[in-house]
Design a protein that fits this description.
The chain has 450 residues and is of the alpha/beta class. It is 20% helix and 17% strand. It is built from eight helices and 15 strands. Strands 5-4-3-2-1-7-6 form a seven-stranded parallel beta sheet. Helix 4 links the parallel strand 3 and strand 4. It starts with 25 loop residues before the first strand and ends with a strand. The relative contact order is 0.15.
Length: 450
């Protein structure tokens, strides 16, 4: 017998060699470097800009020297890679992405290509190695964030107070297609000479080679900072060839311009879900790095809703945490992840490894797998649940995910659309009396088909 719901599922695109990424569900992002000791956002205060949408002034006004002053003292004695990995595992995540080097240039790994990093400070240990080993031990996929730009490297060249204000042409939006080819006049004084740029690309290739050869299997590379140069200047195609020669199955985001496998909208849903594989990267509060005044945290329910809304559109959710300067995790962020994990413990079947539906008429997100359609009750139904566009003649069971409790239901067709052929599978509607709330972050109803 044919798949009963083949007509209402949308099989998402998959990445050759990285098929795991489609349907991965939840990933954890980790933003952290030496500036977290100061309780300021990482990298952006250095250039005097804010990354909060609609805010032009920096949220943490510091000079370049003030920003980098905490590098020599970075000593995160409370850093515990195993604790982070277990938090991600218990949250129901399937992969983790860690900032190996952000725009400010500080390397969180041991490298022969720079003396500006954790290796040369009082802590000394290779944080990236500890992270990769701990995440892999928990059975999770290992991802590395790496910024193509480096505002500390002399050949980039290094950003100075005299370079402020940060050029509007170098703001991330400048990389959008409609801005392609526009002149970058205001920062010509910051352009590298050909000799400098060749040295910087050698530095870039050298660090990427270290990350892709010294830390075992790397499942994902999350590039950033690409908007400051053209794909040709980055030698993006050459970087991809290098990367694939070292880790053939690694998944690469689109911020390696023109060479990525998936898209990464940030902080809010795009008006239209991207074609192909994608993930939404989202903060729990407003900031990426640790900032003690960043207390406007999204609720666990809100975060769970974002997760199912992304998954129902064929993407993953990459949810960020920002450790403190001493390496400890922020309690409110850990609590949110614990709550999501508690919910996923009973509801992962409706989230991880599912596919989107098409043509289903329901007031909420829907997902599907192997003859089952899941209705996510992100808005509490008052009296009944109504869903249309399903092959209702083949409904075998309706149940509440988590408890498994069977739910009563009725099916109906528009009478003029039903032929006398009993083998036909007309689409119709199901009405389900609204179940009592269970207390879960989101209740989910499973409709099973014979």
């Amino acid at each position: 017998m044919s798949d009963p719901i083949s007509s209402i599922v949308r099989e998402p695109a998959r990445i050759p060699g990285g098929e795991w990424f489609t349907g991965a569900g939840l990933g954890i992002f980790v933003h952290w470097d030496h500036a977290s000791q100061q309780g300021i956002e990482i990298s952006w205060p250095l250039v005097g800009r804010s990354i909060i949408p609609g805010v032009d002034e920096p949220e943490d006004p510091v000079t370049v020297d003030e920003y980098q002053s905490s590098a020599p003292t970075f000593d995160p004695r409370r850093w515990n890679a195993t604790e982070l990995a277990r938090l991600a595992k218990n949250a129901g995540a399937t992969y983790v992405v860690f900032t190996t080097r952000h725009h400010a240039g500080y390397s969180m790994f041991h490298t022969k290509h720079s003396d500006f990093g954790v290796e040369h400070g009082p802590f000394g240990r290779d944080i990236v190695r500890e992270y990769a080993d701990a995440v892999r031990a928990e059975g999770l996929r290992v991802g590395f964030y790496y910024s193509l730009s480096d505002w500390h490297h002399p050949d980039y060249p290094a950003f100075t107070d005299a370079d402020r204000p940060y050029p509007a042409e170098h703001w991330p939006a400048a990389g959008r297609p409609e801005n392609a080819g526009k002149p970058v006049a205001s920062d010509r004084h910051r352009r590298s000479t050909p000799e400098q740029w060749a040295r910087y690309l050698d530095h870039l290739r050298g660090q990427l080679t270290e990350l892709l050869t010294n830390y075992g299997t790397v499942d994902l590379l999350w590039f950033d900072g690409e908007w400051e140069r053209s794909p040709e200047e980055w030698d993006a195609a050459g970087l991809r060839r290098l990367i694939k020669s070292l880790q053939p199955d690694v998944v690469i985001n689109e911020r390696l311009p023109g060479q990525g496998d998936y898209r990464t909208p940030e902080q809010a849903f795009p008006l239209t879900a991207p074609d192909g594989p994608w993930e939404l990267c989202l903060t729990i509060g407003q900031m990426w790095g640790y900032r003690p005044t960043d207390t406007k945290n999204k609720s666990a329910h809100s975060l769970a809703v974002s997760l199912v809304e992304v998954v129902s559109r064929g993407g993953n959710l990459l949810l960020n945490v920002g450790p403190r300067g001493d390496g400890s995790l922020v309690e409110e962020q850990a609590e949110r992840l614990d709550a999501i994990g508690g919910w996923l413990a009973g509801h992962a079947e409706a989230v991880v490894g599912t596919v989107p539906t098409t043509g289903v008429d329901f007031y909420g997100p829907t997902t599907a797998r192997d003859g089952v359609v899941y209705l996510h009750l992100v808005n509490r139904p008052v009296e009944e649940i109504v869903v249309r566009g399903l092959p209702v003649r083949r409904v075998a069971n309706v149940r509440l995910v988590g408890s498994g409790a069977a739910l009563p239901y009725e099916v109906a067709f528009e009478v003029h659309e039903v032929s006398g052929d009993d083998t036909a599978e007309p689409l119709g509607e199901i009405r389900i009396p609204a179940p009592d709330p269970t207390g879960a972050l989101i209740d989910v109803v499973a409709v099973e088909f014979a």
